Amino acid sequence: MSTDGAVERREEPPHPTPPRNGNGNGVAAPAAAARPMYGDRRLRLNPNKEHKPERYDDLQSEFDPVIFSSLERHLPPSMLEVPREAKAQFMKEILARYLPEGERTRVQRHKEYRQKILSTYQPLHKELYNIHPSSFFIPSFINAISNNTVESFRNIMSEPSPGVYTFAMLQPRFCEMLLDEVENFEKWVNAVKFKIMRPNTMNKYGAVLDDFGLEAMLNKLMEEFICPISKVFFSEVGGSTLDSHHGFVVEYGKDKDVELGFHVDDSEVTLNVCLGKQFSGGELYFRGVRCDKHVNSETQPEEILEYSHVPGQAVLHRGRHRHGARATTSGHRINLLLWCRSSVFREMKKYQKDFSTWCGECQREKKERQRQSVTATKLVFMQKTIYTEIPYQEHAEMSRLFGGTRH
């Protein structure tokens, strides 16, 4: 067992997240009266990467518009050219089958909760709500994304431990504005006595940025700036198919959260950026990537990493990379977290038993099986060679040693 204790799963609070798609494996839509026929109405197992989905931002539904755009890539070919309304209805029917009535009610309540905030809260820095690369990011990061090559990414990154990438990302002014915006939001919350939902089940302080208007900006951050990197370094865990996110800030220090226990994130890829302020302590510690089955397995020496936060500096890692945060011993530390998710990867994961392409313990088990197989093969070969070449009178002794018999 890891010396840092059992791993918790760091999840969002109980307000629901809609399902990303059906089961992705030939799910038929429920029957409906007077429905137009479009031939094969079963979803594609793999997404159509050539298809450019429509936008559903104006669609009246309890489901996130991003879900429809993502799911559209899995529609059967016969439906790709039908009117958007027909596609939307077809996808609504599928989603309804996989979201119980109680969950649908909670989704609707969260939507109403968010609308209530947006209708009342007045942003302090309106320029934050749209991506402005030159004022948000440092030039080296922008250039790396623009070049979009493994070499350009490697040039700005350090990899202190396999699968953990660090790089300078945010302009100091952006960090200041975002901190101001969060503080302004918290003042508004206290003034109107509005009870807000916290970022996840492990943090008692902080705010969900998506809930007060920053969802579109963060989604663009994921799509245009994190996805290109994730496609290169995290393709085996859905880095090539990221299609939704959960964005929030967490706060540590006096009268805030002090530390964060050993856990895994509810994400495929996690972006963690230190915004400031002045603080000491609060180091991240990493202990290897694990699937659900092996999440509490022993940590290997080469998997141990301690990392100290630096304002403006980003850490990018798999959500299943076990980690935690040491106590912030003085000052006030605030971090921006973006949990990036892939509905396709989550669906496909349901049908897999081995994750040796990314789980450290699965890799070790696979190597051990291979080692045992090679050993057994060598032993059989030795037995055959010995029984073929040694004198007959020595067979009895060799049989006793190898447990074999002469035929």
TrEMBL record:
This is Uncharacterized PKHD-type hydroxylase At1g22950 isoform X1. Residues 1-57 are annotated as: Disordered. It comes from Ananas comosus (Pineapple). One of its GO terms (molecular function) is oxidoreductase activity, acting on paired donors, with incorporation or reduction of molecular oxygen. SMART domains: P4Hc. Keywords: Dioxygenase, Iron, Metal-binding, Oxidoreductase, Vitamin C. Residues 1-14, 38-57 have a biased composition (Basic and acidic residues). Residues 20-36 have a biased composition (Low complexity). Residues 243-342 form the Fe2OG dioxygenase domain. The gene is LOC109714693. Its cofactor is L-ascorbate. Pfam families: OGFOD2-like (PF25238). It comes from the Eukaryota. PROSITE patterns: FE2OG_OXY.
